[in-house]
Amino acid sequence: MIIGIPIKNFEEAYTRLEHILSPEERSALSKALLNNIVDSFKGLNTDIYLITKDKEVNRFAKKLNISAYTSKVMGLSKEVQNFLDNKYDRNTPWCIIHSDLPYVNRFNAKQLLNEIANNELLASRSEDNGTPIIGGTKKMNRFHYGKNSFSLHQKEAIKINALLHIIFSKELLFIMRL
Questions:
Q1: Does the structural domain 2-172 have CATH classification 3.30.420.40?
Q2: C-alpha dihedral (61, 67, 71, 75), degrees to nearest 10
Q3: The pLDDT value given to residue 176
Q4: Where exactly are the structural domains of the chain?
Q5: Cys-Cys link to 71, which of 1, 82, 92, 118 (CB 3.0-4.6 A)?
Q6: Parallel, antiparallel, or unpaired: how do β-strands 2-6 and 121-124 relate?
Q7: Is the four-CA dihedral 69, 73, 79, 83 of positive or negative sign?
Q8: 124 - beta bridge partners?
């Protein structure tokens, strides 16, 4: 299974928390959450990649003993699509997961990988209709990132004639409280 974790950089992480945490604290939080995601999937027959153009994130990938994938295209959605275009193999399940899902652990990572391997497409939906996790055995023609991406992924599933299963596990999605 290939796992792609898109991440722009650490310097601009969690800007919504800038009134509470310093830039250094936000960067440290971003790295800690990313480290947890990677640790949860390591050793589970996965090839883990950080999808990034940022040099510091590339160095952090080496520190975590995983690969970094850098594309020549601009924009996170296009970068992820480029990653899938180059790393997806016909029979290889794949997963794109946010770097900062706080409740992912080894147990639900194992469950997720099993579900992905048994479904054409599988995704979680956040409260802003984003897609914290998407994967499957069938490749999408177009990846979408950010707010309302879940609806766009549903449309992509229809275009490729794939059944999209929805994950309802609270550990595998974002719940936002204001």
A1: no
A2: -50
A3: 37
A4: 2-172
A5: 82
A6: unpaired
A7: negative
A8: 167
Count of Cβ atoms closer than 10 Å to residue 128 Cβ: 12
Q: Where are the alpha helices (DSSP H) in 11-163?
A: 23-41, 55-63, 76-87, 106-117, 149-159
Per-residue pLDDT of the chain (178 residues; tens, 9 = 90+): 999 999 999 988 888 888 999 999 999 999 999 999 999 999 999 999 999 999 999 999 999 999 999 988 998 899 999 999 999 887 789 999 999 888 899 999 999 999 999 999 999 998 889 899 999 999 988 998 888 999 999 999 999 999 999 987 655 543 333 3
Please give the structure tokens belonging to residue 35.
């480290």
Q: What pTM, to 2 d.p., does this model score?
A: 0.91
Nearest alpha-carbon partner for 43 in 1, 72, 8: 1
Cα angle 100-103-146, degrees, rounded to a multiple of 5: 35
Q: Residue 99 is which amino acid?
A: S
Phi first, then psi: what are they for 132, rounded to 5°? -65, -30
The dihedral over CA atoms of 29, 31, 33, 36, expressed in degrees to the nearest 10, equals -140
